[in-house]
Structures are given as structure tokens and as C-alpha cells.
Amino acid sequence: MRVTLHVWRQNGPDDKGQIVRYPLDDVSEHMSFLEMLDVLNETLIESGDEPVAFDHDCREGICGACSLMINGVAHGPQAGTTACQLHMRSFKDGDEIYIEPWRAKAFPVIKDLVVDRSAFDRIISAGGYVSVNTGSAQDANLVPIGKDDADEAFDYATCIGCGACVASCKNASAMLFVGAKFSHLEKLPQGQVEADRRATAMVEQMDIEGFGNCTNQYECQAVCPKEIKVDAIARLNRAFSRSTVKNG
Ligand code: FES
């Protein structure tokens, strides 16, 4: 099939950037979206042009590195799917495909489609961990955890920190990411001890990084490749309120 790509090209953080048009022939419907970009880059390199910079790592939907806004939708048209797991059979011959980076103040563009998501790392460093003594692995396994709680904790733990939630929110809010990381730990006894302190620390860091707040748009839930639900945000908000009432 033949597609026409419109790709955001930006030489560096200070470059203005622009959309550049690239017609691409002989695209197989069996290619993944990133393999299709690899083919584009091979043709660019062969003709002496600079290849398009884009983030990727596992290409299995588990690392959270891929981060493409495809025709205005984070990770593209297939629900519950990362860009690396999207295949060209989701598109038709003759399609025009617009590819842009995540756009948010807290995710500055580094080059082309690559953005700096280290703000997420700093939120985790602020509180997304357990620091109480949980003993050895054997001790942790001796703490009984109900099946429902274990399953729910695992659902939240599937967040891969890709940032699609931020890129899709009109407020560029990171509440779904923070809510998922918070709720994963809060569902487990080892994480409950520091839950309120954790909620405050992570939300404060989120504000410092320049993410907006949640106004219940639900765009984050709609595009999350791991289908994490907004009830994670409600859990975070409850803990944050509790902590504020207790500590002022
Ligand atoms: S490259 Fe790892 S999730 Fe897409």
C-alpha cells in the first residue's frame, strides 16, 4: 500500500519545527507502525537526509518508550495498543498519516518525535516507592493479600509511564500516571503505611514539573494503552485530601 506521512521535524529544543510530507510506497500491511518508520528512515538515509528521531525500545508494548501522536490520537487508532504494537493494517491504501510528538510543557521536545519525559522519573523519586522495612522476599510472601486486592494492584502496576495520558489531556495533567503509581502501592499492605505522605509528595512534584490538574475529561482513560481507569485518580485524590486534613 501507499501512504503519505506528514511528520513533525524539529532539529532541537530551540528549533521552531514544522510538518514535512513524505510519500511512502510499498508499505506492507503486516509491518508495525515503527517498522514503517524504519523504512522511511532507510529511504531518508539513502538519499542523504537526516532520519526521523523517534523513541522506541521493547517494541512489545511493555516499556513505555514509544510515544507518537498519530492523526491526533496518542498511540494511534487502535484502543489499548501502544504505537509499537500498532500495525499498518489499521490504515488504508492512500491514507494521509500525521505523526507528531507528545505536546506538553512538562515534556519538551528534544528532537523530531522524541520528548523529554524525565519529569515522570522525578515524580517517582518524590514518593513512588516503599521505604518501610518489608523484610526479605520470604517475609513479603508471608503477608496474606486478598485476590481482589492483588489483581487490582496488578492492574494499576501495568502503567508503563508512556505519557499518553498527559499528551491527550487538555490540561496536560499527569493525574492518571500518578494515580496508577500511587494506587498500585496503596492496594498492598507494604504500601499503605506511607500512602498519604506519598500522595502529597507525588502531587506536589507533579505541580512543580508543570503538569496541569484533572478536570474529569477522561481523555487519559480513552487513550491509555494499558486501559487504566480514572478510579486511580479518585484514590489519589482521597489520599491527598486525607493528608491535607491531617497535616494542614
Ligand atoms: S517500544 Fe516499548 S512500549 Fe512501545
Indicate the mean pLDDT: 96
* Helix count from the secondary structure assignment: 10
How does CATH name the architecture of the largest domain?
A: Orthogonal Bundle
Q: What percent of the residues sit in helical stretches (DSSP H or I)?
A: 25-40%
Task: Give the class-level CATH name of the largest domain.
Answer: Mainly Alpha
Order of helices and strands: EEHEEEEEHHHHHHHHH
Radius of gyration: 20 Å
- Note the beta-strand portion: 5-15%
Q: Detail the poorly predicted runs.
A: none
CATH superfamily of the largest domain: Alpha-helical ferredoxin
State the gist of this model.
With 248 residues, the chain is α+β, with helices and mostly antiparallel strands. It has helices at residues 33-46, 118-127, 137-142, 147-157, 164-168, 175-186, 189-192, 195-209, 219-223, 231-247; strands at 3-9, 18-24, 69-70, 73-74, 96-100, 109-111, 114-115. A 5-stranded mixed beta sheet has the order 2-1-5-3-4. Strands 6-7 form a two-stranded antiparallel ribbon.
What layout of secondary structure does this protein have?
Elements: E1 3-9, E2 18-24, H1 33-46, E3 69-70, E4 73-74, E5 96-100, E6 109-111, E7 114-115, H2 118-127, H3 137-142, H4 147-157, H5 164-168, H6 175-186, H7 189-192, H8 195-209, H9 219-223, H10 231-247
Parallel strand pairs: 1-5
Antiparallel strand pairs: 1-2, 3-4, 3-5, 6-7
The chain binds FE2/S2 (inorganic) cluster.
Residues 56-59, 61-66, 82, 84, 160 line the site of FE2/S2 (inorganic) cluster.
